[in-house]
Amino acid sequence: MGVLIVVVMLNKGETVPDEPALSATQSRDALTAAMQDAVAAISLPTETNVVRAAPFSCELDGAPAYTLHLEEMQGPALEDVDAAFVTIREVWEQRDLVVQPRNMGQDVRGLSGTDQYGGTVYVLTGPDGTVFSGESACRPKVG
């Protein structure tokens, strides 16, 4: 004869979310840090431009949500694109970003790094210069 033991744990008024309550601002800040670390790792001189500070609307699981653009960092063309991309890939993978090549034609090459929530940072480089930018994950709250 077997014995069935049932253990019931009650959570006193707290709910455990399926995923952390990451905001669009937190996503943007984490991706901006990944972008800045990559720029520093390849020693690229850049100028920073704010593209748009206001949130954009998006849809998350059928509900209204928000995404934010990252600042844009512009610099000169990369002299050794392959070596720079190896370094950028290492920096972004250390931050658990999934890194993919983004080739935009014969003269322009790029990489993107995507986090587990869909936020993306990218770098594009060609003969006219290099740009880093991206956008936060689509999240239910901005801040």
What does this structure look like?
The structure is a single chain. The termini are far apart. Strand 7 and strand 8 form a beta hairpin. Strands 1-4-8-7-6-5 form a 6-stranded antiparallel β-sheet, with helices on one face. It is built from 2 helices and 8 strands, in the order H-E-E-E-E-H-E-E-E-E. With 143 residues, it is of the alpha+beta class.
In short:
The protein has helices at 24-41, 81-94; strands at 47-49, 56-60, 63-67, 72-75, 98-101, 109-114, 120-126, 129-135.
The arrangement of helices and strands along the chain is: HEEEEHEEEE
Number of helices: 2
Specify the helix fraction band.
10-25%
- Strands of the widest sheet, in order across it, are 1-4-8-7-6-5
Tally of strands: 8
What is the overall shape? elongated
Using brief descriptors, characterize the structure shown.
single chain; disordered N terminus; alpha+beta; 143 residues; six-stranded antiparallel β-sheet; 2 helices; 22% helix
